Amino acid sequence: MPRKAVRLADVAAAAGVSVSTVSKILKGDGRASAATRARVLETARRLDFRPNPLAQSFVTGRSLVVGVLAENAPSTFSMPVIIGAQSSLGRADLAALMYDARNDPKARTEALRKLQARRVDGLIVIGEGPDIDYPPVPADFDVPTVYTYTSYRDPRVVSYTVDNVAIGQMAARHLIELGRTRIAHVAAGRSLRSTIDRHEGFATTLADAGLPLVFSGPLYGDWKRTWGSEAARIILGSGTQVDAIFAASDDIAVGLYATLRGGGVRIPDDIALIGVDNYAKVPGRGDRFLTTIDRRLPQLGSSAADHLIRLIGGSTESGGAFPTASELIVGATTRPDLVGPVEQEIDTYLTDAVSDADRG
Amino acid sequence: MPRKAVRLADVAAAAGVSVSTVSKILKGDGRASAATRARVLETARRLDFRPNPLAQSFVTGRSLVVGVLAENAPSTFSMPVIIGAQSSLGRADLAALMYDARNDPKARTEALRKLQARRVDGLIVIGEGPDIDYPPVPADFDVPTVYTYTSYRDPRVVSYTVDNVAIGQMAARHLIELGRTRIAHVAAGRSLRSTIDRHEGFATTLADAGLPLVFSGPLYGDWKRTWGSEAARIILGSGTQVDAIFAASDDIAVGLYATLRGGGVRIPDDIALIGVDNYAKVPGRGDRFLTTIDRRLPQLGSSAADHLIRLIGGSTESGGAFPTASELIVGATTRPDLVGPVEQEIDTYLTDAVSDADRG
DNA sequence: CTGAAAGCGCTTACAG
DNA sequence: CTGAAAGCGCTTACAG
User: Fold this and answer.
1) Are residues A37 and A186 located together in one domain of the fold?
2) Which of residues 10-29 of B touch A (CB under 8 A)?
3) Which of residues 295-314 of B touch A (CB under 8 A)?
4) 10-residue block means of pLDDT along chain B (360 residues)?
5) Is pLDDT of A336 > 50?
6) A233 and A348 share one domain
7) How many CB atoms within 10 Å of residue A124?
């Protein structure tokens, strides 16, 4: 590699033309004779010219940096969203300046001030899912902004979120397709947005299939494995016949699994189980033994980033003109669900797995 | 916020001095009368002047962007390292331009070319742990570089890695302190660097305590839960008395747990178990029920980034002058282990947990 | 079709 | 102690 960076002026001198001519030709500006164009292009290639992005940013005002404002960066579910977003940004040669608000309003404000001063070209706000609220970015932060993994459903903002209604639907469809008819829903907190949405999709799909919801409603608890165990005892103790359970998390599903098995229930022969999170996904490890729904959080983040990249690119897309989710996600079961300029993605797929061979 | 950004020239005009005087005063350059200094500072504050970083980067040549070259960004163990690094970078107002090599040599080369062209101020290379090798960045990539979570032990590069010897020591000490005397090691692959290092620390600590290693060596397998189950059957079938097991991963530990329990063994009463990974760390979920060693991967990444930040800052530290690990990590059990300019961190802590209340 | 020139907003010798 | 001036490497009207 050349010790000293070659500049536009070097190319111009070598090609025997002016700097402005080289500049125009290199950025594809039409008006140039074929001969000049060829010579300049050839010279630039020969000298391995790479325009200095620092100079370009300075003159164009585009920093090639995007702000990433995370509410809680190191959390298990934020990380994949951030990594997904950043992978997309890298593909577009955009750097990410990340600040972690750590649920601190002052840190959030300070981060926005810094991002503004830094002249970021855009902003991605990454929340902590649909169940945790906090104020949106002030309107006077006048930079293209996309929210993801937040609780926002405001049609005035672009927001990519997990489609929890669809998760409920997928879970129901899966269990129905297995031929189950006595299906229960072991949910997390009763008032959580995610619980409400998932149950809406779940209950509607069951109703459409003419199936009852066992216990005529979800069993409400929390996200933990211990709640799964408790729910199993409730189900076993109720004497109610159940042949399938939709669990709100894989942890709950594991608790259900252990306690039901302890109670003599065969999984999935007697009771089929489906969870959410696809939590054990270390390659070559985990050897998943329960069916689960993956929220595809990296894809969520990358979809949000791709959208922002289009906005930065001067795209004027808005409202219903947004690309549908099925255009954004490859190789996944998707369902576009467009509400005004808010885009919800299903961002989920079923991971079917074998039943546990461990008869310990 | 002002519609139009205020420039150095605006401050100069308002304060009645020259642009160069403002520039010098604002960056703390000494020679200035107290009166001028006060007036300029006050004016800058009043106008809320923020220097245009695009202009600054252009003239100084410092891009305020750091390259992040990840070997496999979305993998479970890479993500926390990347997020940790990026949090540190953000604290230093440095953006991260991340490329994901996806184990593709050509992608790696291309990423380096782009980072070079982008004039990044530094580079962080994030690997896939000590067990996977690939070539280092070519020497002609003349930018401060720090490696982390890679297999490098080359004293010519700065490399932050998990200290697996220390992990073995911690596991042994923990089990010894519990009063256990018949201690086994259920390891992953025999030839893995991590296995070898952990066993070195483990066996040495046992020997120092005058304790034998049951089976006179590790039981070798893989990282999976199923291997844990198989190992449990081996242990139970051997008739050998065992009262504690060091498992190479939490997945293995879970397999051991399930199968030992199935065999009538009480955990931890009869056999104490310790794993590695602290895998179930979703806040409020997981309700961890096994003792584990956390590798503190976010701290690993942030330590690497902090080191790079110092290098970029023009620090001339090198060789033994590097700060020790205990200076870098707060609130953790650390052990500085300095080998030339290579710095290894222990980056681990014990998470003691209650035994499982789930008697399912 | 091509080039001279201004300008982006700073920093940094250099002169006074 | 302070300021005039050059310069960083591009882009972009504008003129020819």
Assistant:
1) no
2) none
3) 298
4) 74 88 81 82 90 94 96 93 96 96 94 95 94 86 89 78 86 90 97 94 96 94 90 95 93 86 86 81 59 83 90 53 26 24 30 31
5) no
6) yes
7) 30
Tell me, yes or no, if B229 comes closer than 8 A to chain A by beta carbon: yes
**pLDDT score for A284:** 54
Distance CA B36, CA A313 (A): 44
Domain assignment present for residue A1? The answer is: no
> Å from A116 (CA) to C7 (C1')?
23
The answer on A272 and A192 residing in a single domain is yes
Same domain, B345 and B269: yes
Residue B60 Cβ under 7 A from any strand C atom: yes
Q: Are the beta carbons of A286 and A280 closer than 8 angstroms?
A: yes
Element (H, E) at B338: strand B337-339
Question: Same domain, yes or no, for A102 and A76?
Answer: yes
pLDDT for res A320: 27
Determine the residue type at B111. Answer: A
Residue A80 domain-assigned (yes or no): yes
Q: What is the CATH number of the domain that holds B20?
A: 1.10.260.40
Report the gap between the CA of B74 and the closest CA in chain A (Å). 6
Query: Could you read off the pLDDT of A46-105 as tens digits, one per residue?
Result: 999 999 999 999 999 999 999 999 999 999 899 999 999 999 999 999 999 999 999 999
Instruction: Count how many residues are written for chain B.
Output: 360
Note which residues in 31-60 of chain B have CB less than 8 A from chain A.
Answer: 50, 52-55, 57-58
Contact indicator for A148, A123 with CB cutoff of 8 Å: no
In a domain? residue B57:
no
Residue B191 within any structural domain of the chain: yes
| pLDDT score of A152 more than 90 | no
Nucleotide nearest to B24 (CA to C1'): C11
Nearest CA-CA distance, residue A286 and chain B, Å? 6
Tokens standing for residue A241: 């016949």
Cβ contacts of A246 within 8 Å, gap of 6 or more: A168, A171, A172, A175, A183, A184, A185, A186, A202, A274
- Could you tell me the CATH number of the domain that includes residue A139? 3.40.50.2300
Contact, A148 vs A81, CB < 8 A? yes
A220 and A278 share a domain?
yes
What's the pLDDT at B257?
85
Q: Taking the model in full, what pTM does it have?
A: 0.87
The domain total for chain A is 3
* Chain mean pLDDT for chain A: 81
pLDDT exceeds cutoff 70 at A322 = no
Q: CA A194, CA A57: separation in Å to the nearest integer? A: 42
| Whether A122 and A100 share a structural domain | yes
> Helix or strand or coil: residue A125?
strand
Tell whether A275 and A335 lie within a shared domain.
yes
CB contact (8 A) between residue A226 and residue B116: no
Full residue range of the structural domain in which residue B279 is found: 164-290+331-359
